[in-house]
């Protein structure tokens, strides 16, 4: 289990130079924007424009805050994506441009090299207590809003505030079942990663 924090992640320029992103986790360790197997990051989108191209990469995108984005895919219908929407998955080689729907937007990105890894991104609202069974080789739980407490299968406790996450699967002791609790509604993103 490894804790990640948005506040501790240094800002990095986008591949196309049009903005900045903060990297929460990447594999292999020390990989760059062109040679990662998988990458999880958050970005602040202050203006519209074309997305960077990532051939051979599968991407998922969720809006964390702001009014949202209108995404235009070459040859397809536009898609509106807001904080209440399910994450959008698309191929990194697709030509995509974004338009802000009303000011800056914070987003959450998952990218996996298609020949090596696959992923799933889900967004939950947690209020109360819930058991969670780990199903993937690696999993990241990221608290986008609110606070939550949790316990691993061996009863080790953990807490997450907004902007913090835990990466599970790098340690054999992580166990398979987690118990999560939020006294007030918390927004949680769950990333599941499987090696091909």
From TrEMBL:
Gene3D superfamilies in alphabetical order: Jelly Rolls
SUPFAM superfamilies, A to Z: RmlC-like cupins
UniProt superkingdom: Bacteria
PANTHER family, per database record: PROTEIN VES
Protein name: HutD family protein
Organism field: Pseudomonas linyingensis
């Amino acid at each position: 289990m490894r804790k990640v924090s948005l506040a501790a992640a240094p800002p990095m320029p986008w591949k196309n130079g049009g903005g900045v992103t903060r990297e929460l986790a990447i594999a292999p360790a020390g990989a760059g924007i062109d040679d990662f197997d998988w990458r999880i990051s958050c970005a602040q989108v202050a203006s519209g424009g074309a997305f960077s191209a990532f051939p051979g990469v599968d991407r998922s995108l969720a809006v964390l805050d702001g009014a949202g984005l209108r995404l235009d895919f070459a040859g397809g219908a536009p898609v509106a994506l807001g904080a209440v929407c399910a994450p959008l998955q698309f191929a990194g080689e697709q030509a995509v441009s974004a338009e802000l729907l009303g000011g800056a937007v914070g987003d959450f990105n998952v990218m996996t090299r298609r020949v090596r890894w696959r992923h799933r991104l889900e967004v939950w609202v947690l209020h109360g207590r819930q058991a969670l069974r780990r199903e993937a080789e690696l999993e990241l739980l990221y608290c986008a809003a609110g606070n939550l407490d949790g316990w691993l299968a061996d009863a080790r406790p953990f807490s997450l505030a907004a902007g913090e996450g835990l990466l599970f699967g790098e340690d054999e002791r992580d166990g398979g079942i987690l118990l999560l609790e939020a006294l007030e509604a918390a927004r949680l993103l769950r990333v599941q990663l499987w090696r091909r």
